[in-house]
Amino acid sequence: MNTLEKLEWATIIGATILLFGLAALALPVLDALDNPDYYGEPDYIVNVVASQWSWNFIYPDGSESGELKIKQGDIVRLELESKDVIHSFYVREMGFKVDIIPGRTRIHIILAETPGEYWIQCAEFCGAYHGGMRTKVIIEE
Ligand SMILES: [Cu+2]
Question: For residue 135, what are the CA distances in angstroms to 54, 66, 90?
C-alpha cells in the first residue's frame, strides 16, 4: 500500500467516523423536536380541519369557529386533518408550518405565550382560491 492509498483510506475512515459522530449528536435532538409531549400534558385539544378553501377549528366542548382562539399560557395540542387535498398550516410569526395530508392526522403543540393576532396561511398550493385560505390565531390575555 503506497502513501496515496493510505491517505485515501484515512479519508474514507475519517469521513465515516465524522458522519456517525454527527448522527449520534443529531438523533436525540431530532427526536426531542418531534416529541408531542415536549411541553408536558396539553391543556386541551383543538381539531383543525382543512378543506378547500377554509380552516375549521373544533374545540373540546364541540363548538366550532373559523379562527383559532386560545388563552395566553395554554398548552394546546392541535390535531390537523384535511378533507380533500394537501394543505399546509403556516403561522409565520409563531415559526411553524405543518403539512396536512388527507387520511393522516398531524399533531402540533402550541404554547400560547404572547397575546395577539397571528395570520394562518395555507402554504401548499391547493387550488383556485388557495391564496384566500387564511385566517388568524387569536391569543387572548
Ligand atoms: Cu392552499
Answer: 8, 7, 10
If asked whether residues 131 and 98 sit together in one domain, one would say: yes
Give residue-wise pLDDT tens across range 67-97.
999 999 999 999 999 999 999 999 999 999 9
Q: How many domains in the chain? A: 2
- What separation in Å is there between the alpha carbon of 2 and the centre of ligand 1? 60
In a domain, 39, yes or no: no
Q: State in Å: Cα 104 to ligand 1 middle.
A: 17
Q: How far is the C-alpha of 115 from the C-alpha of 63, rounded, in Å?
A: 22
Cα of 14 vs centre of ligand 1, distance in Å, is: 45
Chain segment 126-141, per-residue pLDDT in tens:
999 999 999 999 999 9
